[in-house]
Write a structure and sequence with these properties.
Bound molecules: beta-D-galactopyranuronic acid
Shape: globular
Distance between the termini: 58 Å
Largest sheet: 5 strands, mixed
Structural class: alpha/beta
Number of strands: 11
CATH architecture of the largest domain: 3-Layer(aba) Sandwich
CATH superfamily of the largest domain: Bacterial extracellular solute-binding protein, family 7
Strand order of the largest sheet: 2-1-3-10-4
CATH topology of the largest domain: D-Maltodextrin-Binding Protein, domain 2
Protein backbone atom coordinates (compact mmCIF):
# COMPACT_ATOMS: atom_id res chain seq x y z
CA UNK A 1 0.00 0.00 0.00
CA UNK A 2 2.70 2.34 1.04
CA UNK A 3 4.57 1.75 -2.18
CA UNK A 4 1.55 2.33 -4.33
CA UNK A 5 1.04 5.63 -2.51
CA UNK A 6 4.52 6.79 -3.18
CA UNK A 7 4.23 5.80 -6.83
CA UNK A 8 1.13 8.02 -7.04
CA UNK A 9 2.95 10.91 -5.49
CA UNK A 10 5.82 10.41 -7.84
CA UNK A 11 3.40 10.34 -10.72
CA UNK A 12 2.02 13.67 -9.58
CA UNK A 13 5.46 15.12 -9.29
CA UNK A 14 6.31 14.01 -12.77
CA UNK A 15 3.15 15.55 -14.19
CA UNK A 16 3.83 18.79 -12.37
CA UNK A 17 7.39 18.84 -13.65
CA UNK A 18 6.17 18.33 -17.17
CA UNK A 19 3.88 21.38 -16.72
CA UNK A 20 6.73 23.49 -15.50
CA UNK A 21 8.90 22.44 -18.39
CA UNK A 22 6.22 22.42 -21.04
CA UNK A 23 5.84 25.71 -22.81
CA UNK A 24 2.81 24.88 -25.05
CA UNK A 25 -0.64 26.37 -24.40
CA UNK A 26 -1.96 22.85 -23.77
CA UNK A 27 0.37 22.32 -20.86
CA UNK A 28 -0.61 25.67 -19.30
CA UNK A 29 -4.30 24.86 -19.67
CA UNK A 30 -3.86 21.53 -17.89
CA UNK A 31 -2.04 23.28 -15.09
CA UNK A 32 -4.94 25.71 -14.67
CA UNK A 33 -7.48 22.90 -14.50
CA UNK A 34 -5.63 20.85 -11.90
CA UNK A 35 -5.18 23.89 -9.67
CA UNK A 36 -7.25 23.28 -6.53
CA UNK A 37 -10.44 25.33 -6.22
CA UNK A 38 -9.20 27.01 -3.03
CA UNK A 39 -6.40 28.64 -4.99
CA UNK A 40 -8.87 30.40 -7.28
CA UNK A 41 -9.34 34.12 -7.00
CA UNK A 42 -11.77 35.64 -4.55
CA UNK A 43 -14.88 36.91 -6.30
CA UNK A 44 -17.70 39.13 -5.09
CA UNK A 45 -20.83 38.73 -7.20
CA UNK A 46 -22.77 41.97 -7.52
CA UNK A 47 -26.53 41.39 -7.45
CA UNK A 48 -29.30 43.80 -8.44
CA UNK A 49 -32.94 43.94 -7.33
CA UNK A 50 -35.47 46.73 -7.73
CA UNK A 51 -37.06 45.91 -4.38
CA UNK A 52 -35.90 47.05 -0.95
CA UNK A 53 -34.11 45.13 1.80
CA UNK A 54 -36.46 42.67 3.46
CA UNK A 55 -38.37 41.90 0.24
CA UNK A 56 -38.52 38.11 -0.34
CA UNK A 57 -36.45 38.14 -3.53
CA UNK A 58 -33.78 40.32 -1.94
CA UNK A 59 -33.54 38.17 1.18
CA UNK A 60 -33.46 34.91 -0.80
CA UNK A 61 -30.55 36.09 -2.96
CA UNK A 62 -28.72 37.49 0.07
CA UNK A 63 -29.15 34.17 1.89
CA UNK A 64 -27.90 32.37 -1.19
CA UNK A 65 -24.81 34.59 -0.95
CA UNK A 66 -24.27 33.73 2.71
CA UNK A 67 -24.41 30.01 1.94
CA UNK A 68 -22.03 30.50 -0.96
CA UNK A 69 -19.58 32.34 1.24
CA UNK A 70 -19.73 29.62 3.86
CA UNK A 71 -19.34 26.77 1.36
CA UNK A 72 -16.29 28.39 -0.26
CA UNK A 73 -14.66 29.71 2.92
CA UNK A 74 -15.24 33.27 1.82
CA UNK A 75 -13.81 32.81 -1.67
CA UNK A 76 -17.17 33.54 -3.35
CA UNK A 77 -19.78 35.93 -2.01
CA UNK A 78 -22.71 38.12 -3.07
CA UNK A 79 -23.04 41.88 -2.68
CA UNK A 80 -26.68 42.89 -2.97
CA UNK A 81 -27.63 46.25 -4.49
CA UNK A 82 -31.30 46.53 -3.56
CA UNK A 83 -33.85 49.32 -4.11
CA UNK A 84 -32.88 50.04 -7.72
CA UNK A 85 -29.45 51.33 -6.72
CA UNK A 86 -28.22 50.07 -10.07
CA UNK A 87 -31.34 51.13 -12.01
CA UNK A 88 -34.40 49.30 -13.28
CA UNK A 89 -34.70 45.76 -14.62
CA UNK A 90 -33.79 46.50 -18.21
CA UNK A 91 -30.54 47.98 -16.91
CA UNK A 92 -29.97 45.00 -14.61
CA UNK A 93 -30.31 42.60 -17.53
CA UNK A 94 -27.92 44.65 -19.65
CA UNK A 95 -25.38 44.89 -16.83
CA UNK A 96 -25.49 41.12 -16.33
CA UNK A 97 -25.05 40.58 -20.06
CA UNK A 98 -21.97 42.79 -20.01
CA UNK A 99 -20.58 41.16 -16.87
CA UNK A 100 -20.76 44.46 -14.95
CA UNK A 101 -22.88 42.60 -12.39
CA UNK A 102 -23.17 38.85 -11.84
CA UNK A 103 -26.76 38.44 -10.66
CA UNK A 104 -29.97 40.10 -11.78
CA UNK A 105 -33.28 39.25 -10.14
CA UNK A 106 -35.84 40.33 -12.70
CA UNK A 107 -39.38 39.69 -13.84
CA UNK A 108 -40.08 37.46 -16.81
CA UNK A 109 -41.98 40.50 -18.06
CA UNK A 110 -38.64 42.24 -18.55
CA UNK A 111 -36.83 39.10 -19.73
CA UNK A 112 -39.36 38.24 -22.45
CA UNK A 113 -37.94 40.76 -24.94
CA UNK A 114 -34.52 39.06 -24.50
CA UNK A 115 -35.62 35.40 -24.50
CA UNK A 116 -38.80 35.27 -26.53
CA UNK A 117 -39.79 31.76 -25.42
CA UNK A 118 -40.44 33.10 -21.93
CA UNK A 119 -43.17 35.38 -23.23
CA UNK A 120 -45.60 32.49 -23.02
CA UNK A 121 -45.65 33.19 -19.27
CA UNK A 122 -46.66 36.79 -19.94
CA UNK A 123 -50.00 35.87 -21.47
CA UNK A 124 -52.84 37.25 -19.34
CA UNK A 125 -54.89 34.64 -17.48
CA UNK A 126 -52.55 31.85 -18.59
CA UNK A 127 -52.49 30.06 -15.25
CA UNK A 128 -55.61 28.98 -13.38
CA UNK A 129 -54.13 30.30 -10.14
CA UNK A 130 -50.81 30.89 -8.39
CA UNK A 131 -50.71 27.31 -7.05
CA UNK A 132 -50.78 25.94 -10.59
CA UNK A 133 -48.06 28.37 -11.63
CA UNK A 134 -45.84 27.05 -8.83
CA UNK A 135 -46.42 23.47 -9.91
CA UNK A 136 -45.53 24.34 -13.51
CA UNK A 137 -42.32 26.09 -12.49
CA UNK A 138 -41.27 23.31 -10.13
CA UNK A 139 -41.70 20.66 -12.83
CA UNK A 140 -40.05 19.86 -16.15
CA UNK A 141 -41.55 22.90 -17.89
CA UNK A 142 -39.95 25.19 -15.33
CA UNK A 143 -36.57 23.56 -15.84
CA UNK A 144 -36.95 23.69 -19.60
CA UNK A 145 -37.67 27.42 -19.49
CA UNK A 146 -34.73 28.10 -17.19
CA UNK A 147 -32.55 26.14 -19.60
CA UNK A 148 -33.95 28.11 -22.52
CA UNK A 149 -32.31 31.18 -21.00
CA UNK A 150 -29.01 29.38 -20.41
CA UNK A 151 -28.98 27.88 -23.90
CA UNK A 152 -30.12 31.02 -25.69
CA UNK A 153 -27.48 31.84 -28.30
CA UNK A 154 -27.30 35.58 -27.66
CA UNK A 155 -28.91 36.32 -24.26
CA UNK A 156 -25.61 35.96 -22.40
CA UNK A 157 -27.40 34.79 -19.26
CA UNK A 158 -27.73 31.68 -17.12
CA UNK A 159 -31.18 30.84 -15.74
CA UNK A 160 -30.42 30.10 -12.11
CA UNK A 161 -33.75 30.00 -10.29
CA UNK A 162 -37.38 31.02 -10.30
CA UNK A 163 -38.83 33.49 -7.85
CA UNK A 164 -42.49 33.72 -7.01
CA UNK A 165 -44.35 36.99 -7.50
CA UNK A 166 -47.97 35.98 -6.90
CA UNK A 167 -50.68 37.57 -9.05
CA UNK A 168 -50.83 41.12 -10.36
CA UNK A 169 -53.80 43.42 -9.81
CA UNK A 170 -54.83 46.87 -11.05
CA UNK A 171 -54.51 50.01 -8.98
CA UNK A 172 -55.10 53.67 -9.65
CA UNK A 173 -55.39 57.17 -8.29
CA UNK A 174 -58.73 58.06 -9.91
CA UNK A 175 -61.59 55.68 -9.12
CA UNK A 176 -62.23 52.13 -7.97
CA UNK A 177 -62.14 49.75 -10.94
CA UNK A 178 -65.18 47.56 -10.37
CA UNK A 179 -65.53 46.40 -13.93
CA UNK A 180 -63.93 46.96 -17.30
CA UNK A 181 -65.91 50.13 -17.97
CA UNK A 182 -64.04 51.80 -15.09
CA UNK A 183 -60.72 51.18 -16.82
CA UNK A 184 -61.77 53.13 -19.88
CA UNK A 185 -59.46 56.04 -20.58
CA UNK A 186 -57.13 55.43 -17.65
CA UNK A 187 -53.41 55.71 -18.39
CA UNK A 188 -52.00 52.58 -16.83
CA UNK A 189 -48.31 51.81 -16.51
CA UNK A 190 -47.26 48.33 -17.62
CA UNK A 191 -43.86 46.59 -17.76
CA UNK A 192 -41.63 47.28 -20.76
CA UNK A 193 -42.93 44.56 -23.05
CA UNK A 194 -45.32 45.17 -25.97
CA UNK A 195 -47.51 42.27 -24.82
CA UNK A 196 -48.58 44.21 -21.76
CA UNK A 197 -49.36 47.37 -23.70
CA UNK A 198 -51.60 45.29 -25.97
CA UNK A 199 -53.16 43.67 -22.91
CA UNK A 200 -53.98 46.96 -21.23
CA UNK A 201 -55.36 48.45 -24.43
CA UNK A 202 -57.51 45.36 -24.96
CA UNK A 203 -58.91 45.86 -21.47
CA UNK A 204 -59.94 49.41 -22.32
CA UNK A 205 -57.15 51.34 -20.57
CA UNK A 206 -54.21 53.13 -22.20
CA UNK A 207 -51.16 50.96 -21.65
CA UNK A 208 -47.96 52.91 -21.05
CA UNK A 209 -44.72 50.91 -20.92
CA UNK A 210 -42.28 52.26 -18.36
CA UNK A 211 -39.38 51.03 -16.24
CA UNK A 212 -40.22 50.12 -12.67
CA UNK A 213 -37.84 52.79 -11.42
CA UNK A 214 -40.16 55.49 -12.79
CA UNK A 215 -43.53 54.22 -11.60
CA UNK A 216 -43.80 55.91 -8.22
CA UNK A 217 -43.04 59.37 -9.59
CA UNK A 218 -45.28 58.81 -12.60
CA UNK A 219 -48.19 57.95 -10.28
CA UNK A 220 -47.42 60.88 -8.04
CA UNK A 221 -47.22 63.45 -10.83
CA UNK A 222 -50.15 62.09 -12.80
CA UNK A 223 -48.06 60.99 -15.78
CA UNK A 224 -50.03 57.76 -15.29
CA UNK A 225 -53.34 57.21 -13.49
CA UNK A 226 -52.57 53.70 -12.41
CA UNK A 227 -50.41 50.63 -12.65
CA UNK A 228 -50.71 46.92 -11.96
CA UNK A 229 -48.72 44.78 -9.59
CA UNK A 230 -48.81 42.26 -6.77
CA UNK A 231 -49.61 43.41 -3.20
CA UNK A 232 -45.98 43.38 -1.93
CA UNK A 233 -44.75 45.61 -4.77
CA UNK A 234 -47.76 47.93 -4.37
CA UNK A 235 -47.12 48.34 -0.66
CA UNK A 236 -43.40 47.95 -0.09
CA UNK A 237 -42.41 50.07 -3.08
CA UNK A 238 -44.80 52.72 -1.71
CA UNK A 239 -47.21 52.98 -4.63
CA UNK A 240 -50.06 52.64 -2.12
CA UNK A 241 -49.20 56.04 -0.77
CA UNK A 242 -50.47 57.64 -3.97
CA UNK A 243 -52.87 55.08 -5.49
CA UNK A 244 -55.78 54.39 -3.15
CA UNK A 245 -57.82 51.90 -5.24
CA UNK A 246 -56.66 48.30 -5.64
CA UNK A 247 -58.72 45.84 -7.68
CA UNK A 248 -58.14 42.08 -7.45
CA UNK A 249 -58.17 41.30 -11.16
CA UNK A 250 -55.32 38.75 -10.98
CA UNK A 251 -54.90 39.23 -14.73
CA UNK A 252 -51.22 38.25 -14.76
CA UNK A 253 -49.22 35.66 -12.87
CA UNK A 254 -45.74 36.55 -14.04
CA UNK A 255 -42.89 34.67 -12.40
CA UNK A 256 -39.45 36.12 -11.85
CA UNK A 257 -35.99 34.76 -12.39
CA UNK A 258 -32.54 35.01 -10.93
CA UNK A 259 -30.20 35.19 -13.90
CA UNK A 260 -26.42 35.01 -13.81
CA UNK A 261 -24.01 36.72 -16.18
CA UNK A 262 -22.62 34.25 -18.72
CA UNK A 263 -19.43 36.28 -19.01
CA UNK A 264 -18.73 35.68 -15.33
CA UNK A 265 -20.17 32.15 -15.30
CA UNK A 266 -17.74 31.00 -17.93
CA UNK A 267 -14.84 31.98 -15.68
CA UNK A 268 -16.07 29.73 -12.86
CA UNK A 269 -15.04 26.13 -12.27
CA UNK A 270 -17.58 23.37 -12.90
CA UNK A 271 -17.79 22.83 -9.13
CA UNK A 272 -18.59 26.47 -8.47
CA UNK A 273 -21.23 26.44 -11.20
CA UNK A 274 -22.80 23.33 -9.69
CA UNK A 275 -22.78 24.94 -6.25
CA UNK A 276 -24.51 28.05 -7.58
CA UNK A 277 -27.16 25.96 -9.33
CA UNK A 278 -27.80 24.01 -6.12
CA UNK A 279 -28.02 27.16 -3.99
CA UNK A 280 -30.27 28.73 -6.63
CA UNK A 281 -32.75 25.89 -6.22
CA UNK A 282 -32.68 26.39 -2.46
CA UNK A 283 -33.22 30.13 -2.89
CA UNK A 284 -36.25 29.38 -5.06
CA UNK A 285 -37.86 27.37 -2.26
CA UNK A 286 -36.88 29.85 0.44
CA UNK A 287 -38.30 32.81 -1.45
CA UNK A 288 -41.62 31.05 -1.80
CA UNK A 289 -42.03 30.65 1.94
CA UNK A 290 -41.01 34.26 2.48
CA UNK A 291 -43.44 35.31 -0.25
CA UNK A 292 -46.47 33.76 1.43
CA UNK A 293 -45.85 35.71 4.63
CA UNK A 294 -44.93 38.93 2.84
CA UNK A 295 -48.01 38.91 0.64
CA UNK A 296 -50.19 38.60 3.73
CA UNK A 297 -48.25 41.39 5.41
CA UNK A 298 -48.84 43.60 2.37
CA UNK A 299 -52.58 42.91 2.36
CA UNK A 300 -52.77 43.71 6.09
CA UNK A 301 -50.87 46.93 5.57
CA UNK A 302 -53.20 47.89 2.72
CA UNK A 303 -56.23 47.43 4.96
CA UNK A 304 -54.61 49.40 7.76
CA UNK A 305 -53.86 52.22 5.34
CA UNK A 306 -57.49 52.31 4.23
CA UNK A 307 -56.85 51.23 0.65
CA UNK A 308 -60.07 50.58 -1.21
CA UNK A 309 -59.68 46.88 -2.06
CA UNK A 310 -62.15 45.88 -4.76
CA UNK A 311 -62.92 42.26 -5.54
CA UNK A 312 -64.06 41.36 -9.05
CA UNK A 313 -67.10 39.13 -8.89
CA UNK A 314 -66.85 38.02 -12.50
CA UNK A 315 -63.48 37.90 -14.24
CA UNK A 316 -64.93 36.49 -17.45
CA UNK A 317 -65.33 39.87 -19.20
CA UNK A 318 -61.64 40.59 -18.50
CA UNK A 319 -60.65 37.17 -19.81
CA UNK A 320 -62.76 37.59 -22.92
CA UNK A 321 -61.37 41.05 -23.58
CA UNK A 322 -57.75 39.85 -23.79
CA UNK A 323 -58.56 37.41 -26.59
CA UNK A 324 -56.84 39.65 -29.21
CA UNK A 325 -53.63 39.34 -27.18
CA UNK A 326 -53.90 35.56 -27.29
CA UNK A 327 -54.69 35.67 -31.01
CA UNK A 328 -51.63 37.82 -31.67
CA UNK A 329 -49.05 36.11 -29.45
CA UNK A 330 -50.55 32.72 -28.57
CA UNK A 331 -50.02 30.69 -31.78
CA UNK A 332 -46.21 30.85 -31.45
CA UNK A 333 -46.46 29.17 -28.06
CA UNK A 334 -49.36 26.83 -28.84
CA UNK A 335 -47.49 23.68 -27.87
CA UNK A 336 -46.19 25.10 -24.60
CA UNK A 337 -49.59 26.57 -23.71
CA UNK A 338 -51.15 23.12 -24.09
CA UNK A 339 -48.52 21.60 -21.82
CA UNK A 340 -48.94 24.32 -19.20
CA UNK A 341 -52.70 24.02 -19.22
CA UNK A 342 -52.41 20.25 -18.77
CA UNK A 343 -50.59 20.72 -15.45
CA UNK A 344 -53.11 20.17 -12.66
C1 LIG B 1 -42.68 43.52 -9.58
C2 LIG B 1 -41.51 42.64 -9.83
C3 LIG B 1 -40.38 43.42 -10.37
C4 LIG B 1 -40.78 44.31 -11.52
C5 LIG B 1 -42.04 45.06 -11.25
C6 LIG B 1 -42.57 45.80 -12.47
O1 LIG B 1 -43.75 42.72 -9.16
O2 LIG B 1 -41.11 42.00 -8.66
O3 LIG B 1 -39.39 42.50 -10.73
O4 LIG B 1 -40.95 43.57 -12.66
O5 LIG B 1 -43.04 44.21 -10.75
O6 LIG B 1 -43.77 45.95 -12.57
O7 LIG B 1 -41.78 46.25 -13.29
Amino acid sequence: MKQAGSTDRMGETMIQRRHVLGCGAGAMLTAAIVRPASAQAKMVFKASDVHPEGYPTVTAVEDMGKKLEKATNGRLSVQMYASMQLGGEKEAIEQAQLGAIAIARVSVGALGPVVDGLNVLNLPFLFRDTAQARRVLDGPIGQELLDSVTNHPTAGLIGLAWMDAGARNMYDTKRPIKDMADLKGLKVRVMGNPMFVDMMNALGGNGIAMGYDQVFTALQTGVVDGAENNPPSFVFDNHYQVAKNYTLTEHLIVPEMVVFSRRIWDKLSKDDQALLLKLGKEAQQEERVLWNAYEQKALDKMKEAGINIVTVADKKPFQDAVKPVWDKYGPKYAEMIKRIQAVQ
